[in-house]
């Protein structure tokens, strides 16, 4: 039985031969055109974060959660009339249940689509650690699932065969030919959409929340809270909707263009650029176009990675190769002359199987001359590059290659992985993973395996990766069929399947003949698999401490056999020890280190006149003070982190109060420079300060407070970036403060943004009965239920902290030892100890979005920092009751957090417990400041990578 998407009638439905074969007995719907216009779209993008949230209208229109739920950072880049939407994944929130939200009118004639949208390439960079297309299960031909990760190229797409009853089963990819559109049309049930007519179009949304009938597009079950953005960015018409007061969409220009874009198949660039929203893919023509735009006051960076795509399609034609190289150099020279900067990360000087070695050497040497900065991943690379050209030391930056610890899922065990490949549990398994090419020594590996397998019947070899070129594929296939216990998967492997091969193995083997950098080695270590390899290039330093498994490349014929024989002789305990050592090698190689270096280059090249030195000694940046601004009694500090839309909404609400002049200071505590660049450009009346990175709330605010301290202001107001101030709020704050000369610190009522009748902060008290307990007053009440008039409180929340400026002389700056949470509580306690009065002004109300809660549960960062800092504050103000504080917190607040996880996020409850316990441990030990919680997550992940200890 099935419901007809046109007439909604329920009737039997035969399995169609193609989409156009659908016939509804009730309404007679049977035309291809009508079916294509009336579908429920469920083919779409499944994000690793657990919610499928992306809507593709056509190549020029991408709707994301920013429009449906105001929690994403939208980044619209309008180039050549093509609009792409980028988002920042750290701001994810769970969809809330809602009513049918009306219809969106879409006129396809306004912007006829040219081709299917490449969802993967458009959105793949926009994740915290990893993004991938995943299968969406449905009634499909052959119980298969379509994975569209290369929709921009009709020649390339994949299907994966699955057991319909086993969502974790593993299958094999098969590659479609040029008839991809027709094959998709045949494969998809009418609940999916693939409109293949004169105009290719993919209407895709998820969880059957999007409905199309004619030209009416309808969103089902989702609260459409951002219609203004929808209209502005995508030219939709939303009748009968009040758009007043909604924030304007934010348009960001990409000023770092990287080439080539390999992010669809390789997570390297996605992880390298992290949350740098100023970075985007493109070629030298795009970089030159950006740099030559009129009124461009900021330089563009062209970040070159691999050079092969510049000339590889010329093949053996050396004359064409020379011409392509010269054309590229000419464009780079024009780009630099226009004010742009070339940054080159050297992955290899000469392509591994070069046909034009001399030309490539000359080309690389010229690029090195033109580059403003050359990035290398290891110091070893400098010795190798010296054979080809000289690099001045001032040009070279070492940016360590990050690990791949969280780049691929791990949702099966090593034992399950072996069972899926039919490998015995007690076998010793060697793995080669990566592109199979001649220079990688795979033939040598197969021969070595044949030699040792004769006397070792319980060893296995897995070879995984696409073989290039095709004639080499035939050679490898023939070699593998001659030996037993060799498993091959000589195709591109989807992200979900990567885990299976690594978890089934004991050792990775990479018998390279030549290498500069090796992503395969880092990937192996990230899966806690020790690497057998020659001491070449980066492998010499990367595999230090693993001498039992590395060998002299000059003796590779015999040495590889010896190392594999030795590895096969290790017992399970020894293998486990090697796995732990392998994982340790990459634990301290986060991508944040490289990202900070890239950010540093952007800061250095973009904002040369803004640089200054922070108290920590690390560089920070501050825009020139706005000229001719009127005198003001109030300085406002907004410490930005993460969500630029929230921050801009906050700034706009503050700017709307015209009756009380103020001087605004925006501190960007992001690694990403988007906020600094954007606010500096669109709100020049705000002084913008870029911190060296995420240095914590107090340290970020203090960057501004040091400048404000002696500037002659009467009042200072610290405001969270996720708050909205109503009209005349600042004016009323100043009036109340002037009327209460005996009071020094002032708080206001704060309500939840999505529920203005819910008081989040109505004052606060501190109890020392159980060590230390900080509590918001009137939490959950209606604003009308609060007491009238000013009343005393123990502390004022940092979400809205208004105080007389002389307190910075009397008390000092905010304490930075907490990093996040309790810094304002401690500072207010110090103020009370100095005899200062703190009062609540209940009639003044702010709206607050409270980003520390996601999906209805506290974030892991919140669990850790709140727990740790509660104990740190207790150590300061009531040290004799520290143990009692631990007991009380464990029984009350910590228990309530875990109850929420049990109800709303049971899959994460064990990790939540771990973060709470880490907070207890570090709080008792007196650990202060920033804690690398990502490293803690990395350590927790190791348990899932190791085979059973028994």
From TrEMBL:
**Pfam families, per this entry?**
Glyco_tranf_2_3 (PF13641), Glyco_trans_1_4 (PF13692)
Signal sequence annotation: none
Alphabetically, the GO molecular function entries are: glycosyltransferase activity
Q: Tell me which UniProt keywords the record has, alphabetically.
A: Glycosyltransferase, Transferase
Which domain of life does the UniProt lineage start with? Answer: Bacteria
Recorded hits in SUPFAM superfamilies, A to Z, give: Nucleotide-diphospho-sugar transferases, UDP-Glycosyltransferase/glycogen phosphorylase
Keyword Transport attributed: no
Q: Respond yes or no to whether keyword Transferase is given for this record.
A: yes
Q: Which family does it belong to?
A: Belongs to the glycosyltransferase 2 family.
Database matches in PANTHER family: GALACTOFURANOSYLTRANSFERASE GLFT2, RHAMNOSYLTRANSFERASE WBBL
Name the chain's protein: Glycosyltransferase, GT2 family
């Amino acid at each position: 039985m099935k419901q007809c998407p046109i007439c909604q009638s329920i009737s039997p439905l035969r399995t169609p031969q193609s989409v156009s074969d659908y016939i509804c007995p009730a309404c007679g719907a049977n035309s291809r055109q009508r079916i294509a216009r009336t579908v429920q779209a469920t083919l779409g993008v499944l994000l690793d974060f657990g919610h499928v949230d992306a809507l593709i209208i056509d190549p020029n229109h991408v709707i994301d959660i920013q429009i449906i739920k105001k929690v994403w950072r939208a980044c619209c880049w309008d180039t050549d009339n093509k609009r792409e939407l980028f988002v920042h994944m750290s701001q994810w929130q769970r969809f809330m249940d809602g009513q049918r939200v009306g219809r969106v009118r879409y006129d396809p004639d306004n912007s006829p689509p040219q081709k299917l949208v490449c969802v993967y390439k458009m959105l793949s960079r926009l994740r915290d650690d990893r993004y991938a297309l995943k299968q969406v299960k449905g009634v499909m031909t052959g119980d298969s699932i379509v994975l569209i990760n290369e929709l921009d190229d009709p020649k390339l797409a994949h299907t994966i065969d699955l057991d319909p009853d086993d969502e974790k089963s593993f299958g094999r990819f098969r590659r479609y030919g040029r008839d991809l559109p027709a094959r998709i049309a045949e494969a998809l049930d009418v609940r999916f959409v693939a409109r293949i007519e004169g105009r290719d179009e993919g209407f895709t949304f998820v969880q059957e929340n999007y409905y199309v009938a004619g030209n009416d597009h309808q969103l089902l079950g989702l609260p459409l809270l951002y219609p203004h953005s929808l209209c502005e960015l995508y030219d939709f018409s939303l009748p009968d909707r009040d758009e007043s007061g909604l924030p304007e969409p934010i348009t960001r220009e990409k000023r770092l263009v990287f080439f080539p874009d390999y992010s669809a198949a390789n997570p390297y660039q996605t992880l390298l650029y992290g949350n740098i929203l100023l970075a985007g893919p493109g070629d030298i023509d795009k970089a030159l176009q950006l740099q030559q735009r009129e009124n461009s006051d900021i330089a563009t960076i062209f970040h070159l990675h691999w050079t092969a795509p510049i000339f590889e399609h010329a093949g053996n034609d050396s004359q064409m190769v020379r011409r392509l190289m010269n054309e590229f150099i000419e464009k780079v020279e024009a780009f630099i002359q226009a004010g742009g900067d070339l940054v080159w990360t050297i992955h290899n000087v000469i392509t591994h199987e070069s046909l034009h070695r001399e030309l490539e050497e000359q080309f690389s040497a010229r690029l090195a001359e033109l580059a403003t900065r050359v990035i290398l991943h290891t110091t070893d690379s400098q010795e190798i590059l010296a054979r080809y050209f000289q690099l001045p030391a001032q040009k070279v930056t070492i940016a360590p290659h990050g690990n791949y610890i969280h780049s691929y899922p791990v949702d099966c065990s090593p034992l399950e992985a072996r069972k899926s490949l039919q490998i015995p549990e007690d076998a010793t398994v060697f793995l080669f993973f990566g592109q199979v090419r001649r220079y990688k020594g795979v033939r040598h590996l197969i021969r070595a395996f044949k030699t040792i397998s004769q006397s070792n019947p319980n060893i296995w070899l897995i070879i995984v990766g696409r073989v290039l070129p095709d004639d080499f594929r035939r050679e490898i296939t023939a070699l593998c069929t001659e030996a037993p216990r060799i498993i091959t998967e000589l195709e591109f492997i989807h992200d979900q399947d990567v885990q299976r091969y690594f978890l089934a193995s004991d050792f990775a083997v990479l018998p390279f003949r030549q290498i500069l950098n090796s992503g395969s080695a880092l990937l192996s270590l990230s899966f806690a698999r020790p690497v057998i390899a020659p001491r070449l290039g980066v492998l010499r330093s990367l595999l230090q401490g693993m001498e039992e498994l590395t060998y002299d490349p000059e003796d590779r014929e015999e040495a590889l056999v010896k190392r594999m024989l030795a590895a096969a002789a290790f017992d399970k305990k020894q293998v486990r020890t090697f796995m732990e050592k392998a994982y340790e090698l990459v634990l301290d190689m986060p991508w944040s280190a490289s990202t900070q270096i890239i950010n540093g280059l952007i800061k250095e090249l973009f904002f040369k006149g803004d640089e200054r030195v922070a108290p920590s000694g690390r560089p920070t940046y501050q825009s020139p003070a706005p000229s001719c601004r009127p005198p003001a009694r109030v300085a406002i500090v907004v410490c930005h982190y993460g969500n630029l839309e929230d921050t801009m909404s906050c700034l706009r609400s503050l700017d709307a109060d015209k009756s009380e002049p103020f001087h605004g200071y925006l501190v960007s505590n992001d690694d990403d420079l988007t906020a600094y660049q954007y606010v500096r450009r669109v709100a020049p009346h705000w002084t913008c300060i870029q911190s060296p990175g995420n240095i914590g709330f107090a340290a970020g605010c203090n960057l501004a407070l040091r400048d404000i301290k002696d500037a002659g202001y009467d009042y200072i107001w610290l405001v969270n970036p996720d708050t909205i101030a109503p009209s005349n709020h600042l004016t009323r704050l100043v009036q109340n403060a002037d009327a209460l000369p005996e009071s020094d610190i002032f708080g206001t009522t704060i309500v939840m943004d999505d529920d203005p009748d819910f008081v989040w902060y109505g004052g606060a008290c501190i109890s020392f009965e159980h060590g230390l307990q900080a509590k918001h007053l009137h939490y959950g009440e209606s604003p009308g239920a609060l007491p009238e008039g000013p009343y005393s409180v123990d502390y004022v929340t940092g979400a809205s902290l208004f105080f007389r400026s002389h307190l910075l002389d009397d008390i000092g700056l905010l304490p930075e030892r907490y990093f996040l949470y309790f810094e304002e509580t401690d500072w207010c306690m110090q103020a009370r100890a100095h005899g200062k009065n703190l009062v609540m002004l209940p009639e003044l109300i702010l709206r607050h979005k409270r980003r520390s809660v996601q999906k209805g549960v506290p974030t892991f960062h919140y669990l850790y920092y709140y727990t740790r800092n509660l104990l740190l504050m207790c150590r300061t103000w009531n040290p004799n009751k520290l143990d009692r504080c631990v007991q009380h917190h464990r029984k009350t607040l910590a228990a309530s957090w875990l109850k929420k996880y049990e109800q709303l996020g049971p899959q994460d409850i064990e990790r939540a417990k771990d973060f709470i316990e880490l907070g207890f441990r570090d709080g008792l030990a007196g650990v202060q400041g920033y804690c690398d919680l990502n490293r803690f997550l990395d350590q927790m992940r190791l348990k899932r990578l190791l085979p059973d200890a028994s």
